[in-house]
Write a structure and sequence with these properties.
Distance between the termini: 14 Å
Strand content: 15-25%
Strand order of the largest sheet: 3-4-5
Number of strands: 5
Shape: globular
Number of domains: 1
Helix content: 25-40%
Order of helices and strands: HEEEHHEE
Radius of gyration: 13 Å
Largest sheet: 3 strands, antiparallel
């Protein structure tokens, strides 16, 4: 089992991370997330609200509670969905 696949299994049901539907040799099938990365928000002048920062902190804390060690989090791995929610992607280095 791939490391990233294992992490998505641990995070199953966590609303701050996409759901994984399947995997294979060198690929994962996860939710398609419509929205903007924090990087694109900053470069395009889209406001990032305090609520988003709090959601990011909560998402990382919930991952830690599951025994994960989230790092390599950067502005291109955090999205604000069109509904205004936060989703974190690229969890391969959470172990």
């Amino acid at each position: 089992m791939d490391e990233e696949e294992e992490v998505y299994n641990v995070l199953f049901g966590n609303p701050y991370f996409p759901r994984m539907y399947g995997s294979g040799n060198n690929y994962l099938v996860i939710d398609f997330i419509k929205g903007q990365t924090l990087f694109s928000c900053l470069t395009n002048g889209i406001p990032i609200k305090d609520k988003h920062i709090k959601e990011i902190d909560k998402a990382l804390e919930l991952a830690k509670v599951e025994g994960l060690n989230p790092f390599d989090i950067h502005l291109r791995n955090i999205l604000i969905t069109v509904e205004g929610n936060v989703k974190l992607i690229d969890v391969a280095r959470f172990r």
